[in-house]
Amino acid sequence: DGGITQSPKYLFRKEGQNVTLSCEQNLNHDAMYWYRQDPGQGLRLIYYSQIVNDFQKGDIAEGYSVSREKKESFPLTVTSAQKNPTAFYLCASRSGPSNNQPQHFGDGTRLSIL
Amino acid sequence: QQQVKQSPQSLIVQKGGISIINCAYENTAFDYFPWYQQFPGKGPALLIAIRPDVSEKKEGRFTISFNKSAKQFSLHIMDSQPGDSATYFCAATFPQGGSEKLVFGKGTKLTVNP
Question: Which residue of chain A is at minimal alpha-carbon distance from B50?
Fold first, then answer.
């Protein structure tokens, strides 16, 4: 099945530790996105990438880093600089630069602090 | 203003009733308005979407009404079913830096009682 796979489903971070969330897509989509979702909030954009080896900061990029070495993969690292990392993290992808193409989402990773 | 304001925050409807969720925006650069449905522990899934040159779009029991002059749009769920119980997000996209940015409302938690 074509889709977006996020792993792990649950992740726990110790103080001062960096953790990496995986996002893989087999939809052959060019653009990929990372969002953070907090209870009672909409989704907020962390980083996005339109093509391989290129990515841009979103609205809340501080304390996060990404890479885009392959078209199908867009991992997100939550660094120790992110002081409030507990949230539900969602990865999305979208085909090409055409207007009005919807973003498709994975099933998320829930990150908690130990 | 790159915001989409969504109301109500929560909604309880009886089975067979009509669920109505409203959204409003200020930015006239928004050019695509998708609605997403999210079940607990899952990522948002595209439900239905509309362009601003269309006043209404219907897909099965789901209808988007769009009022461009008032900068408002709404989702109507006819004959609401318990399986429709989920969180619904309105969203809007606008072009930015060669890509499209997706802005979300804060969500409406819908409960359909049997």
Answer: A100
